[in-house]
């Protein structure tokens, strides 16, 4: 299996995030991708290559132009004001406020963010842009006939909506790749999100569409981030009604409960009969993850990969979350090896 990876992810290294009422060191750090890459190489999973550059157009197919312009230029504006610390929002257009776009940098950042967990640094735009190119390069490998490929993206993407960053995510790598498949002739794409946290951004991008089926297994939003999406009654709207399936689980869920939800999601994917499958591969479902509450163990990820392989679809794996840094490589590569062995 080809792995696509870019060293540009090191350009994004936030100093802090707002969590539990404090500015804390970021859980989303460069060593996450470094550990996954090291495991890919140690296990001889397959070749590793740098991404091609497909430009902004495939990103524009998913993300709002004004949002991209803001994100691309935010750090320069911040630096021109004499700052060198992370750029983090502190005001959001909440329910009783108007959704207008201010001209002030902080106001714009609040408009285009939904939490204080996506710091912008000097290298964030380039890192996120390169992560999208990683996903597009792996997508192109499958478009050329490969049965699988691994996009080792960092920063992750599944919380990013068309004009919204948050949850460590800026550009939605999985959605960009899914749209690229459609633009290149596929009729139907399925997305399976196995990250502990609901892929709210991906859901919102495709919620009113029938050409992308979105399925997600995650911590119940009554108690878990991102809180405001991910309930089981969210089934899509308009043309997208019946093409969105959420499987929220309570804290403490282990493989027996989690795999039962996976079976339901796989059943929906089989009924949908997509041309290709995109997996948002988060491994923060691990029992020792510091910010998650499921109890999967490392061997469970082999079984996860095996079950996904039985869907029999060309499959693009896109790296998302996972914050038990020492084990992230083992768990992510276990999914990929389980998939390969079962083919």
From TrEMBL:
Transmembrane segments: none annotated. InterPro entries: HDACs (IPR000286), His_deacetylse_dom (IPR023801), His_deacetylse_dom_sf (IPR037138), Ureohydrolase_dom_sf (IPR023696). Gene3D superfamilies: Histone deacetylase domain. Belongs to the histone deacetylase family. Residues 28-336 form the Histone deacetylase domain. One of its GO terms (biological process) is epigenetic regulation of gene expression. Its cofactor is Zn(2+). This is Histone deacetylase family protein. It comes from Pseudomonas gingeri. Keywords: Hydrolase, Metal-binding, Zinc. PANTHER family: HISTONE DEACETYLASE 8, HISTONE DEACETYLASE HDAC1-RELATED. The keyword Iron does not apply. The keyword Metal-binding applies. Pfam families: Hist_deacetyl. One of its GO terms (molecular function) is histone deacetylase activity.
């Amino acid at each position: 299996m080809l792995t696509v990876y870019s060293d540009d992810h090191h350009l994004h290294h936030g100093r802090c995030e707002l969590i539990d009422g404090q500015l804390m060191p970021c859980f989303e750090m460069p060593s996450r991708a470094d550990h996954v890459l090291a495991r890919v190489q140690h296990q001889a999973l397959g070749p590793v290559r740098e991404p091609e550059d497909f430009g902004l157009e495939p990103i524009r197919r998913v993300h709002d132009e004004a949002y991209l312009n803001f994100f691309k230029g935010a750090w320069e504006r911040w630096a021109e004001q004499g700052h060198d610390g992370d750029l983090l929002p502190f005001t959001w257009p909440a329910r009783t406020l108007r959704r207008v776009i201010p001209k002030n940098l902080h106001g714009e950042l609040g408009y285009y963010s939904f939490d204080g967990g996506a710091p912008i640094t000097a290298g964030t735009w380039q890192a996120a842009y390169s992560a999208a190119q990683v996903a597009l390069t792996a997508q192109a490998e499958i478009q050329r006939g490969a049965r699988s490929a691994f996009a080792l993206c960092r920063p992750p993407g599944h919380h990013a909506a068309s004009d919204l960053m948050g949850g460590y995510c800026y550009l939605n790598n999985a959605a960009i790749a899914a749209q690229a498949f459609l633009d290149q002739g596929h009729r139907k794409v399925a997305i399976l999100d196995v990250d502990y946290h609901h892929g709210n951004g991906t859901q919102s991008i495709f919620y009113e569409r029938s050409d992308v089926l979105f399925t997600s297994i995650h911590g119940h939003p009554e108690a878990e981030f991102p809180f405001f999406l991910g309930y089981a009654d969210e089934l899509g709207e308009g043309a997208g009604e019946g093409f969105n399936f959420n499987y929220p689980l309570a804290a403490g869920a282990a493989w027996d409960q989690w795999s039962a939800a996976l079976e339901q999601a796989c059943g929906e994917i089989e009924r949908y009969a997509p041309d290709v499958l995109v997996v948002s591969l988060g491994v923060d479902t691990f029992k020792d993850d510091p910010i998650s509450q499921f109890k999967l163990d490392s061997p469970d990820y082999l079984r996860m990969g095996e079950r996904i392989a039985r869907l029999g679809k060309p499959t693009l794996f896109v790296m998302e979350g996972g914050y038990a840094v020492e084990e992230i490589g083992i768990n992510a590569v276990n999914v990929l090896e389980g998939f390969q062995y079962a083919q």
